[in-house]
Amino acid sequence: VPPFYKGGNGGIYVEGDFTGVERSQKERTTYEERKPLIFSRALADAIKETVTKGEQVLLFVNRRGYARVLLCRECGFTLRCPHCSVSLIYHAVDASMRCHYCDHRKRPPGRCPRCDGIACGWLGYGTQQVEAAARLLAPDASIVRMDRDTTRQRRAHRQILRGMQQRRTQILIGTQMVGKGHDFPGITLVGILSADASMQIPDFRAGERTYALLTQVAGRAGRGDRPGHVIVQTYNPEHYCILAARNHDYEALYNIERPLREKRGLPPFGCLILLVVASSHEGQAQERAERLASLLVGQAVSSLAVEGPAPAPLYRLKGRYRWQILAKGPDPSTLHHWVKETIAQLSPSEQTGIEIDVDPVDLC
């Protein structure tokens, strides 16, 4: 949105690789409402047909691991990280539950720790479960997974890409790293799973980022001599960012996003500083955040504004509780001076634990 706003009406100026927009004549995109399965019938049939023809498939899911949540269906208990306010994610490779923030690990329990029930099951899926489903669907195909877990070793990333270039890999499954500018002429089918996931992030840029992600990943299909086909699985096929990506219409997205941001003074109509107050004591984090917000309001002139304090979307991280404040202003110099002078009024002990993010890339 900011690049388009600054570019005026003379053209569409967007950051990043949006090859899918430029190659729209070679691509056919199908958007399907998600059913409670990993692959819809249309996507499953397309995968088998593409592999049979000797062409390559890219399956994108921006979640690593096997399952997102271990849920007890008797009492509703979910296994969560003791240090972060997130659920532990199951990794089938080593049969462990992991926190993707602090790397806390433990074995999944045989019974529910709360009610001692045995009706526990997995909810959600990541790259590992998609890989397992793909192997059942196409047992003779060469399948490779590309995510942070499979690229930890030196040169593993290059080996995976080389396998795609040499067409030794028929199905590539991966997270966001598979869509960043790679040119694989053999890919004629792209399947985007759980396209809604990025829209659920509590950030005003969620819609724009979903559009960017969809068009970027879709652009991997049809880059060779054969036309490409993109199938997007979504629970919200009528959402404006999904429709904009389907129609390759960034201007439609901009026309919806612009008034929403302008009303709240968000970029590109204002500047932001995100202040995160963290403490190992829950009450202390809230108390310091409320004091800082009160000082900011007291020092603010009419053009400056404060949102918060409020618990951060990731409320507890590595044992520290987090509250956040969003400071907004029309120009960076006034905003920076206001925040700097206000924080200077705090004692050294109160300043400890305050994280300052100027022009934050994300708010969570």
From TrEMBL:
Its EC number is 3.6.4.-. Coiled coil: none annotated. It is an enzyme of class 3 (hydrolase). Pfam families: Helicase_C (PF00271), PriA_C (PF18074), Zn_ribbon_PriA (PF18319). GO terms for molecular function: 3'-5' DNA helicase activity; ATP binding; DNA binding; hydrolase activity; metal ion binding. Keywords: ATP-binding, DNA replication, DNA-binding, Hydrolase, Metal-binding, Nucleotide-binding, Primosome, Zinc. The keyword Ligase does not apply. Residues 130-225 form the Helicase C-terminal domain. GO terms for biological process: DNA recombination; DNA replication initiation; DNA replication, synthesis of primer; double-strand break repair. Gene3D superfamilies: P-loop containing nucleotide triphosphate hydrolases. One of its GO terms (cellular component) is primosome complex. NCBIfam families: priA (TIGR00595). This is Primosomal protein N. It comes from Candidatus Methylomirabilis lanthanidiphila.
